[in-house]
Give the backbone structure.
Amino acid sequence: MSKSNKKKILALSGSIRKESSNEKLLHYLADQYKDIVDIELYPTLEVLPHFNPDRTSENIPKVVQEFIGQIEQADAVLICTPEYVFSLPGVLKNALEWTVATTAFSDKPCAFIIASSLGDKAYESLDLIMKTLIQKEIEPGLKVLIQGVRSKMVSADNTLDTETNKDLAVLMKSLLHLIDIQTN
């Protein structure tokens, strides 16, 4: 299958940190599944202006229009984020707030990974936000909490520990199934 015929998953990282574990996870998944799906990381959440409800109808900034357009054009969205101060990072929350007045996420297949030291509160928060945006529950197989993420990554060969790999395989199989891609 040529690259242009593959389904596309838009990946959003809640971390803008240079050596982000979350981005590493998204790149890892993109590499692991490159033969069957294109996982494209949205590179610039930090350039989105602060959300302003007064600008959600006719005066939407161009960069926000482009961001929303990428969500709409994707076959699915995969979010991977850390937890900051028992919540979502501001850059991710801001990006998601820009989509509230749109239908960009309505019935869009979505999955998320919370990869952090603890992550419980970010998991609860993102689960509620995404339920609101996609207008239905995200199935358990489409959400993963990876606590102590840095201890689960084997940097020497760019792999993950066995349990984390299994959890991510379930998540990806579930997400791919939603966009009509069958896996073994």
Notes: The helical segments are 21-32, 62-73, 90-98, 120-134, 149-152, 162-178. The chain has one domain: 3-178. The two ends are 17 Å apart (CA to CA).
